[in-house]
Design goal:
This protein is of the alpha+beta class. It is 48% helix and 16% strand. It is built from four helices and three strands. The chain has a three-stranded antiparallel beta sheet with strand order 2-1-3. Helix 2 crosses helix 3. The protein is elongated.
Length: 119
């Protein structure tokens, strides 16, 4: 029957241990930046431009643009018509590396594509 004394001593020790454990207080923090960069300081990016050529058919250009950019047919057709009617279309504005990637992908389809710094 000595187990009762051992149990009460163990319980008292557990209470003391639990009382000494402090849980960290968690409060949601909102971090606000006081200064944001002005538009003049932002990287203007690079424009990916597709140019008109006398070789590729309009359906092929639409297909190539859809494949490279994963665009819906309507958006690809819009840019294809810009290329056809205006001689060029700015397809996207990206970082230098991403713009280079898109230009190379378009060139794999034998399209005349270039990149230039954005304004």
């Amino acid at each position: 029957m000595g187990g009762g004394i051992e149990n009460s001593a163990r319980d008292a020790h557990a209470v003391r241990v639990a009382a000494t454990i402090e849980l960290p207080s968690v409060s949601p923090g909102i971090i606000r930046e006081e200064e944001t960069e002005s538009k003049e300081n932002l990287d203007p990016g690079y424009l990916v431009i597709c140019w008109n050529d006398p070789v590729n058919l309009m359906d092929f250009v639409t297909h190539a643009v859809q494949q490279v950019f994963a665009w819906k047919k309507e958006k690809a057709e819009f840019h294809m018509m810009q290329v056809h009617n205006q001689g060029k279309s700015v397809l996207t504005r990206e970082t230098m590396e991403r713009a280079e990637f898109y230009v190379h992908e378009l060139q794999k389809y034998q399209l005349h594509a270039t990149m230039e710094p954005g304004e």
